[in-house]
Design goal:
Blueprint: E1 4-5, H1 15-28, E2 37-39, E3 42-43, H2 44-63, H3 78-96, H4 101-121, H5 142-164, H6 172-182, H7 186-189, E4 200-206, E5 211-217, E6 221-225, E7 233-238, H8 239-246, H9 252-258, E8 259-263, H10 269-273
Parallel strand pairs: 4-7
Antiparallel strand pairs: 1-6, 2-3, 4-5, 5-6, 7-8
Helix pairs in contact: 1-4, 1-5, 2-3, 2-4, 2-5, 5-6, 6-8
Length: about 280
């Protein structure tokens, strides 16, 4: 397949089945599984609380046009923004530790249902509510803003499932949609990487959710879909490793170990550091 611009990814209809799968899992979890470590210092229960929070925030801000409280300090840099996001996330998670697993499950189920109801009603060409900061955008298309929201739902559920010893989410189309949103952060990750115009970084993601993509240098970097015939470097990574890498689940050294690189290795270096979340 020749290289073409990667078309928009419509995730609006995916929120409901993905959240339903999580509710089914949570209702079957034994009490001890709720306190297993899922990501960083967060336990399973904390990640469930976080998913509930971000879903409710989306509906409040987007559907209801609710004006949130202002940041407690000026947002003057990327570091300030990350500190602010980490603070509001932690505030909710800390408060939710007063709730039982049964309460958390019910709250998440209600929030997820309301989120799916709303997002399914949003026109595909509607403007975005937020710019996707990890893609370097102050303003984003609506489908991309919603897609970023979907990647949160998918990858945090994957972390919960792994911590609980449950099977991964079943449908590879859900992971493929997640990856095609996350990959859109690559041009921003490569923004400081010099290369001749026309140079191509080919990315082959293997596995059921895989695909072939490319970054092409052309007064900056742009993401394309298809099979590059003569790339400067070719990076191959499994779909399971790709989502972990892009959501900060792999260190740079672990990312290198998870990838096979052929060609100019210097052009692969930004790929190992790419992160499509706020960190």
């Amino acid at each position: 397949m020749p290289l073409t611009p990667l078309p928009p990814t419509d995730t609006r209809s995916l929120f409901r089945p993905v959240s339903t799968a999580l509710v089914d899992l949570l209702r079957a979890l034994p009490d001890e599984a709720w306190t297993r470590t899922a990501v960083g210092t967060w336990q399973v229960r904390d990640v469930v609380a976080h998913l509930t929070d971000i879903g409710m925030r989306r509906v409040a801000f987007h559907r209801d046009r609710h004006t949130p409280p202002p940041p407690p300090f000026p947002i003057e840099s990327d570091r300030d923004f990350v500190r602010f996001i980490n603070r509001i996330n932690a505030d909710w998670v800390d408060a939710a530790r007063r709730l039982s697993p049964r309460q958390l499950t019910a709250l998440y189920a209600a929030a997820a249902r309301e989120l799916a109801d709303f997002l399914e009603s949003v026109p595909f060409d509607a403007p975005g509510l937020f710019g996707v900061s990890w893609a370097g955008e102050m303003e984003s298309a609506g489908w991309f803003d919603i897609g970023r929201e979907f990647t949160e739902q998918w990858h945090h559920q994957a972390q919960i499932r792994e911590a609980a010893g449950a099977l991964p989410l079943a449908d590879p189309a859900w992971l493929q949609a997640t990856l095609e949103i996350l990959l859109r952060g690559l041009p921003h990750a490569y923004r400081a990487q010099e290369a001749p115009d026309g140079a191509i970084v080919a990315v082959h993601i293997t596995g059921p959710a895989g695909g072939r993509y490319a970054l092409q240098r052309d007064n900056g970097w742009r993401l394309l879909a298809g099979d590059a015939s003569s790339p400067a470097v070719h990076v191959t990574v499994a779909d399971d490793a790709a989502w972990r890498l892009l959501t900060n689940g792999l260190s740079e050294s672990a990312a290198r170990d998870a990838c096979t690189v052929t060609g100019d290795a210097t052009l692969a270096a930004p790929f190992f550091r790419a992160r499509s979340i706020v960190v």
